[in-house]
Amino acid sequence: MLERDAGFGQAATNMKARFFTRFILLSVFFAAAIAAGMSVHASAPIRPNIIYIMADDLGIGDVKCFGGDRCRIETPGFDRVAREGMKFTDAHAVASVCVPSRKAIMTGRYPWRFNAPRPSGPWGFLNPHLATDQFTLAKMLSRAGYRTGYVGKWHLGTLMRTKDGKNQGPANVDYEAPLRIGPNDYGFDYSFILPGSLDMFPYVYARNGHWVGKVNRQRGWSAFNRVGPAEGTFEDHKVLNDFSNEMESFISRNAGRAKQGDPFFLYFALTAPHTPTSPSGKFEGKSDIGVYGDFVMEADDCVARVLKALDKHGLADNTLVMATSDHGAASYAGPVRKATPGQVHEMEKIGHWPSGIYRGYKFSIYEGGTRVPFVARWPGVTKAGSTCDRLIGLNDLMATLADITGQQLAPDQAPDSISFLPLLRNAEAAAPRKKFIFESTRAFGVRDGHWKLAICPGHGCKGHLGNGASDVEIWRNAVKEFRGKATRADLRRAPFVQLFDLSQDPGETTNLAAKHPERVEAMIRVLETQSANGRSTPGPKLKNDTNGAKPQRSAPKFAQKD
Prior knowledge:
The chain is of the alpha/beta class. The chain has two domains: about 50-435, Alkaline Phosphatase, subunit A (3-Layer(aba) Sandwich), CATH 3.40.720.10; about 435-560. The protein contains 13 helices and 17 strands. It has helices at about 15-35, 65, 75-85, 100-105, 135-145, 240-260, 290-310, 345-350, 365-370, 395-405, 420-425, 470-480, 515-535, and strands spanning about 50-55, 85-90, 145-155, 190-195, 205, 210, 215-220, 230, 265-275, 320-325, 370-375, 385-390, 390-395, 435-440, 445-450, 450-455, 500. The strands form three sheets. Strands 1, 2, 3, 4, 5, 6, 9, 10, 11, 12 and 13 form an eleven-stranded mixed sheet that branches. Strands 14-15-16-17 form a four-stranded antiparallel sheet, with helices on one face. Strand 7 and strand 8 (about 230) form a beta hairpin. It is globular, with a radius of gyration of 23 Å. The model is unreliable at about 1-45 (pLDDT under 50).
C-alpha cells in the first residue's frame, strides 16, 4: 500500500498541520461573525462536507423534476435533492463533450486555454490532460483541511508504466506496476477510478494508482464494441454498483471525523447513462422505455444511495450535495444497446425527450448539448423546493467551493470561475454570472444574459451520430444562402452565425443574427477579449497555453475567400 493511501486515503501526512488549518479557519469565522454583529449558533453549518455527483451523458430531460411531462423515467434520487434543496434551470457545461467539460470543472479554467497532451494514447489510455502542478478542486479543499476522494470515471488522463518504455497503449502497459500519474497526484487523498468511459478500454479499475485484479482478457461491450484489455472479472453491468459501494465505504470511513468538524470532499463521477447502455439485473426492465430508461434509473439510484449513506451516518444536515451531468444526452443512445445514430428519436416518438424542450444533443452547440440538470441540497442554507433560473457554469464549482470554505484564490487560479454561493443562499439573488463561453466539438458559443450566439451555422459538430445533417452539408447550404464565399468579416454575420433570444425562444427555432448584427459583433468580441486576457474574471492578464479561442475555428476552406 502506498504511504499516501495509509488509512484508506486519510492523508497520513502531518495531521498537526490539518488541525492548525481548521483552528485558524474557525477562529477567522467566529472573529468575522462577531465583528459583523452576527449571532453564532452551535448549529450553524461551518465547512460542510461536500459531495459532487456527476452523471455521464445525462440529458436535462432525463431527470423527472426537469423534464416533467416530457420525461418518462422516474428519478427519485435527483428529485429528492431538488425537493429538499434547489433546482438550477440554467446550468451549463462549458463543452458538449466529456474531456473538456471535466477539465473546466476540475480547474475553473476554460479547456481551450490548455494544451492537449502530446503524445496521447487512444480511449482510456489518453495521457494526462493536466500538469501535476495544476491547481485543482482537490488541492484547494485539501488546503482547507478537507479529506478528499475521487470515485468513478476519471477521463482526464493518466501516465501508465509500460513494458517497452514507449507511450501507453493497448499492447504495452505493465498492469503489475502502479500509475506514474493519476488522481492522487492532483490532490485526492483517495481514488478509485476507471481511466475512461465505460466503452473505452482498458476495462480495469485503479485504486490509489494501483491496478485492481489481473488484466488477462480482451473484451468489448455492446455500444461500439471497442475490444481491448480487460481485468478478468470486469463486467460493464457491475460498474455502477462497484462505484456506489466505494462511495459508501468512503463516507463510512470518514463519518466519525466529519462529525467532529473534520470534513470530507467526494467527487463521485458515474459512467451512466453513457454507452454501453448496461443496466444491472436489478434495474433491467424497471422503466417502461427500455434499457436506456433502466440505465438512467440505475444512475439516479447512485444519487439516492449517497443520500441514504448520509442519513445512515447522521451527516445529512451538514453536507452539501450537488448532482449534475457532464453535458447533454447522446443522440446515438436509446432503446437499442448498440450505439445507433439518431436512435434518440425512437424515444422521443414514445414521449421521452432526453433534451427536454431544448434542441440538440451531446457534441452540439445547441442547448441540448450543454444545458444540464443541476440540483443542490445544503440544509440550513438552500431553501427546500426552490428553483433558481440564473445562469451558472460547471466551471464555477471551484470559486463556489472556495467561497464556502473560506479559501482565497490566487490571481492565476480558477480564472474562469465565478462563485454562485449567493444563489445557494437565495435563488432570487442577482446573477453573479452574466457572460459564458461554451463550445461544441467544432464551434464556440457565447451567452450574454438571455442572448445566445452560436458562432457557426447549424449544430456545430460532425452530425454523423444523429445531431442532424453533416457539417459539410450545413456549410454548403450557408454558402448557397450567402450567394458566394465569405470573407473573415462575413463569417461574423448571418447566415454563418446564429443568434437566439432564449427568454422568448428556448427551443432555438429563430435565428435573429441578421436583425441584430451589432449584438452579434459585441458577443464575438466577448469571446475574443476573454481569450486575449487569459481569463474571464477580474484580475491581471494571464497567458493561455494555446493560441486561445478563435471565432469560426472550423469554417471549411470551400466557404472562405482566399
